[in-house]
Amino acid sequence: MDLIAFATGLVSLALVYGLLAIGLNLQFGFAGVINFGYVAFFAAGAFASAIVTLPAPGTEAYLDASARYQIGLGLPVWSGFLAAGLAGGLLALFIGAVSARLATHYLAVATFAMAEVVRSVLGNETWLTRGEFGISNVPQPLGEVFAPESYALFYLALTAVVVGLIFAALRHLGEAPFGRLLRAIKDDELSARVLGKRTARAKLRALAIGGAVGGVAGALWTHSLGVIHVGQFVPIVTFQVWLAMLMGGTGNHWGAMLGAFVLVAIREGTRFVGEVPGLDQIAASNPSFLPSLRFVLIGLLLIAVVRFFPGGLLPERRRRAPATPGTSPASPAPARPVAPDAPALEVISLRKRFGGLAAVDNANFAIRRGSITGLIGPNGAGKSTMIDLLSGVQRPDSGTIRLAGEEITGLAPEQIADRGLGRTFQTPRLYPSMTVWENLMVAGMPQPNETLRAGFLRSGAHREAEVQAALRADTVLTELEVPHMRDELAGTLSGGQRKLLSLGRLMMRDPPVMLLDEPAAGVNRRLAGDLFDRITKLNRQGTTFLIVEHEMQLVMRYCDHVIVMHQGRVLAEGTPAEVRANADVIEAYLGGAVA
Is the torsion defined by CA of 393, 397, 399, 400 positive or negative? Predict the structure, then answer.
């Protein structure tokens, strides 16, 4: 019977670690948030659940247990689980609100520091937690009903049910548009922002859900042991959870759960290292030898997994695009109302400096609605900086930008995208770990369908929106003549195919104005011609283009109007023929007149 109790205890421990791993996996494996302070949510949930369920001081139960704590609410155990999830989620929201916008490595340091602050507070506020002494007699659900020898089996079943429900909910959410958006953010957050996605909001939600999951894991842990103290929540717990997730496979909840079971099996198996002949004598003379050796062995295992299984023991699978019904896609959303005589895009006295360099210096121009305008100039003229300023990737130092008569100066990329401006990058910024079809779906999915509510409920309206986006994606693939690439990973595409996919993502959004940054760069001539033929077709359908391009043959053939930049200023503009004959343009490009 002792062996059964030991085995059930290990499985319960593995399930708790599995729950921690899938919570962290939602934060990192999906959203790409590096959180080195995950143990803080674990601790917050554990203490919240214990305090909520402990008998109130002065009650008969409190006196019978000879307890020594100052706060206990005496609520049912199920309310402790709710309090644990709420405590973990709120703590994650706080940490995310103050640090989620930090760069990757700074965020990792910030989350680790936050966890140490939480542990310090829990350790020092002895009136609440009794510090290192901890709190004993934490209520165990139905502990008075089951005999001690059978209680372990009951709690294992309870843990399995709780973990199973949360696992199913998170897996469902991961397959929803919200999960697809999180994976896109992990691959390239800026690319998602210029497609109109509220990435900061989505990451904060992922942090909160992961924190709530960690809090529930803390409740399972403390009610299983019946005792809680701060020393249980040391930083090494976070790295063990990371180890479980990395061993199993990021982006895959099944892999995270498998990694937790493997971690617990190895961790418990290394307890017998001390029985190896020769090591037992060293262990007897040095109490810290065996714990240190165990961590060395676990570290070597992680190195082996990363070396031979870089995607984990159960790597994230490639998602196949579902078959779509043979109905017509919905028409694109109507364009925003605009001033009838306003240019599609207008730049007035725009300036941007980087230190002593004036990348854009008092630039002025207007883009006529329905035109294809080329933006040319020698390297360093400020063309790409101009595209960044127009799309919100960078903020101008001064000047005004108007889109269809509405000022958009200094707005965030997602706000400008919502107002009807789309852009591509000189080096295509795709989502390499996602398929071509998924890249298009992220671009074309309406924001109301990417919320948590839509992800969990999946109402008829939300399902219909996803079907319409899928039909639109298939239509775009057909128009680009690449339907065979539907299930190919974007990271495996050639340079020309990536340019096509970048344009396809804009076609999914169908903005009135598109900014293309060197669409023909690195593309063979035949594919470049096909790409510009597609641009011409979209232009005939009403889309306005501003294109940065160095291939002068393409500019002269396809553009209605050409703007020449030099040293951050607009040097000349006019029809292709006028620009080609302009002496200042010849001087800027060739350093002198040509015969």
Answer: positive
Any idea what DSSP says for residue 484?
Answer: G
In CATH terms, is domain 345-430+493-590 a member of 3.40.50.10490? no
- Ranges in the chain annotated CATH 3.40.50.300: 345-430+493-590
Cα–Cα distance for residue pair 162/217, rounded to 1 Å: 9
C-beta of residue 41 within 8 angstroms of C-beta of residue 114? no
- Side chain identity at 193, as an amino acid letter? R
Helix 177-187, helix 148-175: angle, nearest 10:
80
Question: Which residue type sits at 167?
Answer: F
How would you class 361 by CB atoms within 10 Å of its CB: exposed for 0-12, middle for 13-18, buried for 19 or more? middle
pLDDT < 70: residue spans in the chain: 1, 62-67, 100-101, 103-104, 143-149, 273-275, 280, 324-341, 590-595
Summarize pLDDT for 164-180 with one digit per residue, the tens. 999 999 999 998 999 99
pLDDT score for 325: 64
Name the β-bridge partners of 241: none
- pTM of this prediction? 0.88
359-386 pLDDT, tens digit each: 999 999 999 999 999 999 888 889 999 9
Amino acid present at 536: T
Radius of gyration for the chain, computed over Cα atoms and rounded to the nearest angstrom: 30
Q: Would you put residue 355 in left (φ > 0), alpha (ψ -120 to 50) or beta? A: left
554's tokens? 């393409």
